[in-house]
Amino acid sequence: MSSSPQALAIHQSAVLVDGHADTPQRFLDDGWHFTGELGAGMLNAATARAGNLAAGFFAVWVDPAQHAPTEYTQHALELADAVLEQVRLHPEALALCLSAEDILAAREAGKFGVLLSVEGAHAFADSLALLRIFHHLGVRSLTLTWNNSNAFADSCVEPHPEPGLTPLGRELVAECNRLGILIDISHSSDQTFWDTLELSTSPIVATHSCCRALAGHPRNLTDDQLRALAARGGLCMVNFFPGFLSDAWMQAWNDLTPERLRLQEAAAAPFREAGVRVPLSTVMRIDQEIVTRIERVPFETLIAHFEHIVRIAGIDHVGLGSDFDGIMSSPLGLDSAADLPRITEALHGRGYSAEDLHKLLGGNFLRVFRQVQLKCRV
Q1: How far apart, in Å, are the Cα atoms of 172 and each of 116, 207, 363?
Q2: Are residues 348 and 367 in the same domain?
């Protein structure tokens, strides 16, 4: 699809912010640089520039399948360091952003705005002190859980016997509010969502989730959740992973899981025999090979999720949450950040105004980020 001049002008004038990318794994595992060639990834400096992506959250995510609990914090620190090293090594291309104003300043300077998030509070063990330390390092968003539950809350995949926020999780939410850290409920159980929404004094976000009315995965938000999120000023940022967009695609992927796990185990064996950690890139490579057997989700399926959120929650409560570099497939025609103008083109063709699109592409996020930080009491 070639963009119309009007849609392209709208896209280029917007401040695009992506709520979630797993690019830091490439920095640490592969020694790759954000300014380098794209390779097997979905996001680098060149594709961000081509897609007019101003800034994005880089996720510090520790895979509990690859690390013992005693290693969680160290690996999270290594990932955060890998991101900060990219900023240090490439000051002409990257700027660490701690606020909405920093994002705008980076864009004005022609730099990509790097934001840090922690995906899964298991990285903090059971220590609020570690939350504060990561805040000092620049973390401004926290996904309460990944698929694994932790000492603070339960996930949508692994529920606690008593679901929702734990007593320590309630302290965590209050401390995030005090520090001005965005609270992200992607991956959370339904009860964690409702507990957090009730407790938080700042708007909360789902940085990379879709609509359960369109695809039944528990990672997605129900219409009631979307309405409640909007009523409290929050935001749902649409994930590009086909499994959260289409039940049929997810079923096809699940059908291939036994073979996928066998191939992953065979690829991991040499690393385990050598007594070293299995690089995540090894696992992802297997996934990328297997996924070619499944027909890609149509681009229009992604657009349907944006439109559903707008219908249910309103135009002020939707954003972009790609999950670039953390997913093994994406909708047809959306291979990298360079293809983001296609979203603007499609929605503009459905009657969305320039004001609507500027909100969806990043303006809504900037508003929520400012609100969260205005309420902080550091």
Answers
A1: 18, 18, 27
A2: yes
Contacts of residue 67, Cβ cutoff 8 Å, sequence gap at least 6? 75, 277
Half-sphere exposure of 270 (CA within 13 A, CB side): 5
Tokens representing 128 are 């609020």
Q: Do 197 and 228 touch, CB atoms closer than 8 A?
A: yes
- The tens digit of pLDDT for each residue in 200-241 reads 999 999 999 999 999 999 999 999 999 999 999 999 999 999
pLDDT of residue 1: 46
Q: 128: domain range?
A: 5-247+296-374
Q: What is the CATH number of the domain that holds 172?
A: 3.20.20.140
* Best CA proximity match to 226, nearest among 248, 204, 199: 204
pTM higher than the cut 0.90: yes
The strand pairing partners of 235, in sequence order, are 205
- pLDDT tens digits, residue range 149-168? 999 999 999 989 899 999 99
Q: Which letter does DSSP use for residue 148 in this model?
A: S
Q: How many CA atoms lie within 13 A of 371 on its CB side?
A: 17
**30 CB-side CA count, 13 A:** 21
Strand-pair category, 53-61 with 16-21: parallel
Which of 204, 210, 207 shows the shortest CA–CA distance to 304? 210
Helix axes 190-199, 223-231, angle to 10 degrees: 10
Beta bridge mates, 21: 58, 324
Are 169 and 133 found together in one domain?
yes
CA angle 56, 61, 66 (to 5 degrees): 150
Mean pLDDT of the chain: 95
Considering the domain architecture, whether residues 300 and 284 belong to the same structural domain is answered as no
- DSSP for 299-312, written as a single string: HHHHHHHHHHHHHH
Distance CA 185, CA 300 (A): 26
